[in-house]
Input
Amino acid sequence: MDGRNRMTQEEWGVLSERLEHTVGRNNFATWIKPLAFKDIQDGIATFHVPTTFIGNYVSQNFADAILHELHSDTPSVRRLNFTVAAQSDARPIAHKAIAHKTAAVSATKAEQPTTMPRAKLDKRFTFDRFVVGKPNELAHAAAKRVAEGGPVTFNPLFLYGGVGLGKTHLMHAIAWELQTSRPDLNVMYLSAEQFMYRFVQALRERKMMDFKEIFRSVDVLMVDDVQFIAGKDSTQEEFFHTFNALVDQNKQIIISADRAPGEISGLEDRVKSRLQCGLVVDLHPTDYELRLGILQSKVEMQRENYPDLEVQKGVLEFLAHRISTNVRVLEGALTRLFAFASLVGREINMELTQDCLADVLRASERKISVEEIQRKVSEHYNIRLSDMIGPKRLRSYARPRQVAMYLSKHLTSRSLPEIGRRFGGRDHTTVMHGVKRIEELKQSDGQIAEDLELLRRALEA
Ligand code: ADP
Ligand code: MG
Output
């Protein structure tokens, strides 16, 4: 390759000024200026952008113009890639393909390095920035305790919960804190996927001794998203040995997963029981108060970037109410809102929120249907859908049926008669009776309570 592939930041500066004529002064200031040229590799020019919103906008509207200018200087450039710079694991932004003479712009995937280094810690994932509420207070307290780096009292600490509830955040926070509280400790954080990747690589390169050596010498091991190794037998086996070796030496292990150890199918029983023998804590789905708290704290952070932006009363409450899926979505919504408001120079009010977040709000409106509930519940209890809806009164059908009625009452906006109709034309009093029965059982029967919780989660996921 010739030297023209190595464009510098300065050269980009000069070149980008030519763009000012093409796109106009305003567009230039708003959209092109914020781009930070990173590099050109394999014909792909990468830019850091401050927000996903800007990246998307630029790629949809100015990719052609940028590519044209780049091309005149560096003919090998074929594509543009925008990644959000604030994130340590800069994620590429998908953007639509734009034809340009011989060149094309399309989304590119971040390249996998051949050797995967220790996972980077996200600077934002600290205890300071973790908002504590009822649903996560136990997990937070346990994480704090482990982060003190004192004597190991529970091993492993097993954190579990649905996506976007803060598992990774808490693990990174532990790692950050340990760097200060116990700089002498060798702390290793990685995802289960990376664990597998390294393991396979060690096998391939015949470096198992090194692999074992590395993992046996850490003082604190954190493995994120351990459900990933379910069904992957040899990785599981190696994980089990690593785990045991560390526990024997009284080294702290912290594990996360999207569900409780016992519920990860494809995981060997001995692994499950090992995972359960420490402290298992659950991050519950967020409630309204926690979501509002998180939003308020994120607004404070956004203020650093946008000091003049005002958020009108009611907007955060509206978002906390409407976006109940996961915190990541909530966060993304807020980032977009600030970027949008600052670009159009308006304050953040309800109207702007509705405009800017129409897609997010629509997606979170997804309604659960009675049919979906019936399907999930019959799967859960291993009965046929036809038996759930049919006339049989056997207890083994009647109980799941009542559970499904209960969930239909609580998770959909259907009336009792409407629900009855969907259960093979049953009367609304039958539905009412079923719902009542489950409400009683929920108090007295731990198994039912657990089933309900599991099903609700699965349905709301
Ligand atoms: P998980 O690993 O459980 O899928 P993450 O830890 O990646 O979720 O969290 C998703 C996003 O939500 C992150 O940006 C994180 O900072 C944020 N987040 C989650 N819970 C909280 C919280 N309690 N306070 C502040 N931010 C949170
Ligand atoms: Mg995670």
Residues 288-305 form the longest helix (18 residues). The mean pLDDT is 86. The beta strands are 36-41, 44-49, 79-84, 98-100, 103-105, 157-160, 187-191, 220-224, 252-257, 279-282. Residues 126 and 139 are 14 Å apart (CA to CA).
